Amino acid sequence: MSELMSEAERLDAADGLAAVRDRFVLDDVTYLDGNSLGALPAHVPDRVADVVRRQWGELRIRSWDESGWWTAPERIGDRIAPLVGAAPGQIVVGDSTSVNVFKAVVAAVRMAGEDGPGRDEILVDATTFPTDGYVAESAARMTGCTLRPVVPAEVPSALGDRTAAVLLNHVDYRTGRLHDLPGLTAAVHAAGAYAVWDLCHSAGALPVGLDEHGVDLAVGCTYKYLNGGPGSPAYLYVRHDLQDRFDSPLPGWNSHAEPFGMRPGYAPASGAVRGRVGTPDILSMLALEASLDVWDGVSVEAVRAKSLALTDFFLRCVGEYVPEGRVESVTPAAHAERGSQVALRCSPTLEFARAGGAPIAGDVMRRLIERGVVGDFRAPDVLRFGFTPLYVGFADVERAARVLAEILAEGSAPED
Known about the structure:
- By secondary structure, this protein is an alpha/beta fold.
- The chain is 35% helix and 13% strand.
- The chain is built from 12 helices and 13 strands.
């Protein structure tokens, strides 16, 4: 047994979160793709079966009241709130991340317009997940604003009297870089603009501090580190003191002050309910609610401490196992700049047999998956490994690095 394997055993034995792994459905596969889709909490199938068979099958429409379906968006929002550092009453669950980004950006621009004339520019993270960029561009056209892509580090110098809203990612989906949410939010506010944060790759992996840092609006998905299931509903955060000014571009009957009044004119409800639109997706929503039970007794601070330990150990293992020059980490080494994933760029000199000219990184990841180590890749050359501290252990980390080294050591296929 290698020294790293022995160290992994010792670290797992001392891990205060190790027992949480038993709350999930897992097998012998080393699953490092929770930053795309979290594992299934073991109790969720029975809970969903009850929703389908009893709540829907027996109670039917009575479940909107008797099973709490109608209040689920706010109730589940309050379950997510402590995981992102928010007090109750500020988060509503529903719709997709993309839809919530649209609501948040347009609402931010509208609030900026109320503050005074001349706010006609939206800044967007130039490295953002593509959909955020698409939505921001559409929001800009709809509101008559100019869209300006800016890398997060340059946002403070790009802000000005024209800036209405700034849409940023807390963690870069490709590299795993953690951006400075407190500092950037403060800079946006100093310029008189509104900060909208995408938390998809940070919620459930590290402390966010929405209330502490005065974030205006935030959105996030729930199927990554929150383990809500494929396509589980996203959430929208609107800070308490902005809720009476939140003017959604998608007013729906669910966010009406009198939803069953069926009035022709729209009158928004008070509070976070303003973020609702139409009838919520109850099956997915209640599966998410059940999934959040895995957080009982778990602190985000403990998760962050383990996340950093896991990613540190992975980088060490890669450094010791993988020959120099084969991969390069594009994830920052500094803890203050790292989320809960490690992204490795494959050297362009590596050549593998691959059908149809598939990217090198894609071929390496395919081989990893075939050998029971599941991550993913982003074109053209990045391998992504996500570390979900609730169920990933140090032995998983050591195994992933060792198998990666074995694959990279297999050498090139002979040229035709």
